[in-house]
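Good morning,

Attaching, inline, the backbone tokens for the sequence recovery test we're adding to the shared suite. The designed sequence is right after.
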């Protein structure tokens, strides 16, 4: 007999709260990690409201820093940051439920798929690839941006359905502005509106009329980025990293890597060792994989638009963003936070179309059990810096930065022999890595004083 699923929004929210609590209860034991120190712990601009106000003229992502300042000034310590991240994740899971519900209602006139939205939201709540955006405190840049991005999309959809001009012309662009204030990667939002319209059978040319405020926000935002010294200097540094051909190659390699991470989240890695590419010669398999999915996306538009929507959404969010603004780190798991939910939507729709309700529930239950178990296990890696970097060193043994971070964690714990081993490994991998050499000098100084 199939389990009884919630039929009200409140019931769905309770189920999602239960799922998030089970998956992330042990995340509350986590500490500050990696970039948390530069961005939060050692950053005076998020330690007071005066510091936050002063940083508005010289920094980027003001609304993200607003959230950090709020947590810091509340004085709840690291657990306050974690609780905020869990609340953001819960909210996003509920927004995904509403979006999946809207998509299913526009695609199907039957009640057969009424379970699909809750399945999609539960899979999102439990998937371990999202731990980097939830358990890792600095991952909030992605999760909080996603919250306003999805809220804006939902406001647009409900506004169009209800013919509510306030939602379409007011609330939607406002939420887009807030998302941009959290993280600039929200620039894809107007294209996401077009994609939704097209996937749901609308005419994209006709859809441009109610979407003009969001496109105006995009143009104004681009001008602000171009004339802001903080953003402009960041873009200038990025533009010097690689050629356009190299950027395309890197994004295709990142696309293949992240799709594998979503499908088989067994090698989650906070600092993956992905080499920068200058051309396509070393990425033939990722290129074939990308082209194959592109062909599937085009072929499915008429008969199975949910598959095409999912693949188009992934390509929109992963490929264009860094073609002109490349990064040294070409991919990280938290990029899938905004990206992955339409893949779960397509999977659940296909499951329900091919099986009856009981078998669909059984398949989803098994998936949830496996994903939740992996999430709980992954959260344990964030319990300490040593544990996280030991895990990362196993998965990225050839990356100098990983061994330096592990060595530094050992040094702080006064495990000097292990720290020296890691710093020596760094210099073997990269003799120019000055931080490791400096850290070895520090170890020598401390040894001479003992």
């Amino acid at each position: 007999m199939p389990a009884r699923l919630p039929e009200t929004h409140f019931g769905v929210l309770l189920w999602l709260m239960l799922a998030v609590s089970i998956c992330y209860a042990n995340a509350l034991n986590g500490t500050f990690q990696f970039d948390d120190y530069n961005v939060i712990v050692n950053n005076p601009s998020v330690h007071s409201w005066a510091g936050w106000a002063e940083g508005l003229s010289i920094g980027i992502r003001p609304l993200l820093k607003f959230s950090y300042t709020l947590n810091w000034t509340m004085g709840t310590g690291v657990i306050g940051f974690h609780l905020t991240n869990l609340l953001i994740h819960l909210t996003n899971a509920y927004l995904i439920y509403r979006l999946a519900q809207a998509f299913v209602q526009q695609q199907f006139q039957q009640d057969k798929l009424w379970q699909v939205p809750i399945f999609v939201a539960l899979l999102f709540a439990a998937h371990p690839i999202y731990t980097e955006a939830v358990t890792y405190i600095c991952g909030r840049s992605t999760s909080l941006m996603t919250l306003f991005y999805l809220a804006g999309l939902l406001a647009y959809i409900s506004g169009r359905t209800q013919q509510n001009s306030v939602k379409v012309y007011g609330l939607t662009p406002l939420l887009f502005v807030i998302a941009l204030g959290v993280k600039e990667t929200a620039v894809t939002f107007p294209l996401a509106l077009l994609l939704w319209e097209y996937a749901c059978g609308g005419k994209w040319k006709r859809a441009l009329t109610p979407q003009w405020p969001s496109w105006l926000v995009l143009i104004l935002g681009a001008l602000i980025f171009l004339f802001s010294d903080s953003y402009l200097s960041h873009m200038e540094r990025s533009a010097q990293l690689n050629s356009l051909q190299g950027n395309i190659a890197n994004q295709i390699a990142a696309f293949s890597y992240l799709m594998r991470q979503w499908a088989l989240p067994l090698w989650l890695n906070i600092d993956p060792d992905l080499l920068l590419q200058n051309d396509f010669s070393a990425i033939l398999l990722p290129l074939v994989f990308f082209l194959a999915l592109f062909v599937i996306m085009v072929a499915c538009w008429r008969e199975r638009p949910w598959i095409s929507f999912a693949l188009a959404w992934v390509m929109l969010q992963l490929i264009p963003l860094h073609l002109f603004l490349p990064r040294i780190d070409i991919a990280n798991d938290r990029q899938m936070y905004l990206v992955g939910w339409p893949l779960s939507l397509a999977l659940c729709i296909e499951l329900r179309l091919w099986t009856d309700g009981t078998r669909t529930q059984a398949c989803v239950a098994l998936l949830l059990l496996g994903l939740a178990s992996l999430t709980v296990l992954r959260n344990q890696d964030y319990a300490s810096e040593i544990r996280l970097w030991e895990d990362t060193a196993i998965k990225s043994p050839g990356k100098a930065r990983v061994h330096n971070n592990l060595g530094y964690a050992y040094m702080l714990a006064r495990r000097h022999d292990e720290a020296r081993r890691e710093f020596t490994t760094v210099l073997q991998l990269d003799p120019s890595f000055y931080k490791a050499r400096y850290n070895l000098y520090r170890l020598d100084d401390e040894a001479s004083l003992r």
